[in-house]
Amino acid sequence: MHKPALLALEDGSLFWGESVGMDGQCVGEVVFNTSITGYQEILTDPSYCRQIVALTYPHIGNVGVNEEDEESAGIQVAGLVIRELSPVVSNFRSQSSLSDYLRKNNKVAIAGIDTRRLTRILRDKGSQNGCISAGDNIDETAALAAAREFPGLKNMDLAKEVTTAQSYQWTQGTWILGEGLPATPQPLAEKLPYHVVAYDFGVKRNILRMLVDRGCRVSVVPAQTPAQQVLDMKAHGVFLSNGPGDPEPCTYAIEAIRTIVNSGMPVFGICLGHQLLSLASGASTVKMKFGHHGANHPVQDLATGQVMITSQNHGFAVDENSLPDNLVVTHRSLFDSSIQGVRRTDKPAFSFQGHPEASPGPHDIAMLFDKFIDAIKAGK
Fold this sequence. Notes:
Blueprint: E1 4-9, E2 14-19, E3 24-33, H1 39-43, E4 51-55, E5 59-60, E6 79-81, E7 84-85, H2 98-104, E8 108-111, H3 115-125, E9 128-134, H4 140-149, H5 159-162, E10 168-170, H6 188-191, E11 194-200, H7 205-213, E12 216-222, H8 227-231, E13 237-240, H9 251-262, E14 267-270, H10 272-280, E15 285-301, E16 307-318, E17 327-333, E18 339-344, E19 349-352, H11 367-379
Parallel strand pairs: 3-4, 4-6, 5-7, 6-8, 11-12, 11-13, 13-14, 14-19
Antiparallel strand pairs: 1-2, 1-9, 2-8, 3-9, 10-12, 15-16, 15-17, 17-18, 18-19
């Protein structure tokens, strides 16, 4: 028998359900994600730091969880909200149930609420700060107060909180059916001829794996690594990772990126990296009403007219009215026309707001990694 749980929103909305994680309380910005698959990848994505994620797909947990699908070292979301937890776990790769996984990672989660009602509130009013309380003797008043006291993600620099403490090397490629995660390719210099430095603002492992698949040995560095230190590594290109929070307070990253781009080094950014590249180029960013979170977002390539289905996870966007002359828009969202990609006209630097590396998918826009490799080849 599950214990009771409560989700309280800052607007006063209350959702009673049952606990499917640990007893306790969590606070954060409540956002909804429309993905049908990939709940473990969502949970372990560092871009969700300080956010409570509500999954709109109603039946969650049926395939369990496993270590190979983690996008980071553990669960990164503040809390989880679902409609129904599957009573059966059935998959040949499963190592644990979702509920056990949440408890192992000391995460609070609530099930059995009307996620459709919750999503309508978030769409109409915008992302809400919220609190999940789980266990016996829940205090509604205290939960509401905790939700209202959360400061929100605006002006919150979270990249330096989720980044790696020390630099490390990554040489592992993507998972292969029937083989699992591959061994380090040998000989290393021949199989991985390109050296890429990746700034870790909250990097997902599948990004690193897709770079390795394309012949890159990756040096991952902390978010606050100075530009000169990166340039001294004599890399062929620099990657700017995804990450959580507001990009504008990350002044250390913006300054470093500006220096690296001006050096002529090929640069590729994703998600927060896209926003930081834009800021370093002279643009500004804005907080979105409820953001883009899901694996079914149509994006158009403005050069070709091609429409691709993409995975998205962001609450900030590049301001259309702030673009400098040397920064052009390459992709747009077909949901709201917001900027999805930019390119520098004077330097080999470009970025994309969504997630071309998305695991479990879609992979429509994975060719952006190939574009990065082409820029590296041209600069060698």
